[in-house]
Design a protein that fits this description.
The complex is a heterodimer of chains A (170) and B (214).
Chain A (H helix, E strand, L loop, with lengths): L4 H18 L5 H13 L1 H16 L10 H72 L1 H6 L3 H10 L3 H7 L1
Helix pairs in contact in A: 1-3, 2-3
Chain B lengths: L4 H10 L1 H10 L3 H23 L2 H17 L10 H23 L17 H12 L7 H13 L3 H11 L5 H8 L3 H26 L6
Helix pairs in contact in B: 1-2, 2-3, 3-4, 3-5, 4-5, 5-9, 6-10, 7-10, 8-10, 9-10
The chains are: A mainly alpha (170), B mainly alpha (214).
């Protein structure tokens, strides 16, 4: 016999209340309501007994027998292996991280050296340029020091007495 | 959901197994062994009835303990230890079921969603029992087998809820937390499960109760 949806819902709700009653999950008010229905309705009483009897039969299910010592030992061994793998993985990760840090430090070192070289090169190049431009003066510094003033040298240049030497040195 | 300090403190005070787990968090190996000794039989019993296979149940129980170990450093008590443990067990069993379904190692019962067991074992057994010995009283061993097969007619959720309620004596609130469902959902699950069990077992009770004919 098929139940109408409404009857089915009502039956389902009744079952929920009865099962919750058996499981001690109802609040006082709900429990009183269920007990009132049980007192007045034979069908509800029979349904409660059926549900209860079925539940009691579940006690026939066996509790698993476990070789506790063996299970504990094998589980601890499995966890020890997993733990050592975790440690290895951590060490490997640390090694990778260290390698990355060393590589980065090396690259930064190289970059710093190169930068230093460029900077030094630039500074020294400027000094060399100055020296190069001053070279004719430096080479003849002894002669220049014998001259008492610059006006005398300018006079000599105006007269063109040493034009060939000056041009050859320029 | 984050666990407040007061909640953690409450469960630490109430539940000795929570205190043991906190020692496990501090790398106390003896505490971990003690927890295993306290729970392995209970865990394997639930998983064995859930999967119907002893070897799978033991493998899953080991996986549960492994997860407990791995989670130790972040453990913060937000429930009873048993609730937390069976939450992990439920997840491990669900993952295993999905994995098995993917590998098509078991026949899926499309009618009730059970995937650990072949379809309709109880119906098959009923026919065999009825044909061979229709009038005798069911003995204890056979009754146990009938109940086991009746459990297997339930879908996975109903079965887990029944096992946690019957074997772990868990409240609806704790079952709901373990299975990540609402309390109302658990109420409905358990009600339907009991009704289904009644339908599955009743023919045996009636058949077995018949007097032996001369």
């Amino acid at each position: 016999m098929s139940e109408s949806p409404d009857n089915s819902t009502v039956a389902q709700e009744l079952d929920e209340q009865l099962v919750a009653y058996l499981d001690g999950e109802l609040v006082d008010e709900q429990r009183a309501e269920v007990e009132s229905r049980l007192a007045s309705d034979e069908t509800v009483r029979r349904r409660l007994q059926e549900l209860d009897r079925t539940w009691e039969l579940l006690s026939e299910l066996p509790v698993s027998e476990v070789d506790e010592e063996n299970f504990t030992r094998s589980t601890v061994e499995m966890i020890a292996v997993a733990a050592s793998q975790e440690v290895e993985a951590y060490q490997e990760e640390t090694r990778k991280k260290n390698w990355l840090q060393y590589s980065l430090a090396f690259i930064l070192g190289i970059a710093a050296c190169y930068g230093g070289f460029l900077l030094t090169h630039q500074v020294t190049s400027a000094e060399n340029q100055q020296l190069l431009s001053d070279l004719p003066v430096i080479e003849s510094i002894d002669e220049y020091q014998r001259v008492e003033n610059i006006e005398f040298l300018e006079l000599l240049e105006q007269q063109g007495l040493f034009a060939e030497e000056v041009e050859s040195e320029m | 959901m984050s666990i407040t300090e007061s909640t953690a403190r409450k469960y630490e005070l109430q539940d000795p197994d929570v205190r043991l787990m906190l020692e496990v968090r501090d790398d106390n190996a003896a505490a971990f062994e003690e927890l295993m000794l306290r729970y392995q039989r209970r865990l394997i019993t639930v998983l064995e009835h859930l999967t119907s296979k002893r070897d799978i149940a033991e493998d899953l129980a080991q996986e549960v303990f492994l997860r407990v170990y791995r989670a130790r450093k972040t453990y913060k008590p937000g429930s009873k230890f048993s609730t937390w443990l069976f939450t992990i067990a439920n997840n491990v069993a669900s993952n295993a079921r999905r994995g098995m379904a993917r590998r098509k190692e078991v026949q899926v019962d499309s009618a009730n969603g059970s995937s650990f067991m072949p379809a309709n074992p109880l119906e098959q057994m009923a026919k065999e029992a009825s044909a061979l010995m229709p009038t005798r009283q069911l003995d204890k061993l056979e009754m146990s087998e009938v109940v086991r097969l009746a459990i297997e007619t339930l879908n996975e959720r109903q079965r887990m809820a029944v096992l946690l309620s019957k074997f772990e004596d868990m409240s609806y609130v704790d079952i709901a937390e373990s299975m990540d469902l609402s309390v109302q959902a658990i109420k409905s699950l358990l009600s339907r499960a009991r009704a289904n069990l009644k339908v599955a077992i009743e023919p045996y009770l009636k058949e077995g109760a018949k007097p032996v004919a001369d």
